[in-house]
Amino acid sequence: MRKLVLVAGPVLLAACATAPAEPVVHGQTPGHTCDAAGTDRFIGQPGTGETGTAIMRATHAAVLRWAPPGYMLTMDFRADRVTVHLGPDYKVTDIKCG
Asked: What is the pLDDT at residue 17?
């Protein structure tokens, strides 16, 4: 019985291990790189979920970060993130990647 466990154990564990299709990099979602070109059309629109979804679709970002007035942001860079800055009226004032 012990021989079976010693032989079968590594084989079963190897069957469970799968390599990811692309290497995972901290702060980056494979297949998503933000590109803010052409996002001027969203300036002045209200900061709603619908606007956020449209901005993510337009920029190919995987992560959306809202930046309301007076809100502090981290300085870490993420190639897959879009940051949407909002004015006091909660309308979009600027869109940046990272």
From this structure: 47
H helices within the chain, ranges in order? 2-16, 49-59
Sign for the pseudo-dihedral over CA of 90, 47, 38, 62: positive
CA distance 22 to 13: 21
Q: How far apart are CA 32 and CA 21, in angstroms?
A: 14
pTM higher than 0.85, yes or no?
A: no
DSSP annotation of 84: E
Written as one letter, the residue type at 10 is P
Residue 16 Cα distances to 9, 13, 23, 33, 67, angstroms: 11, 5, 18, 30, 42
pLDDT at 13: 47
- Running along the chain, 98 residues long, what does each successive block of 10 average in pLDDT? 51 49 61 90 96 96 95 91 96 96
Rg (CA), the chain: 21
Q: Which CATH class is domain 26-97?
A: alpha beta
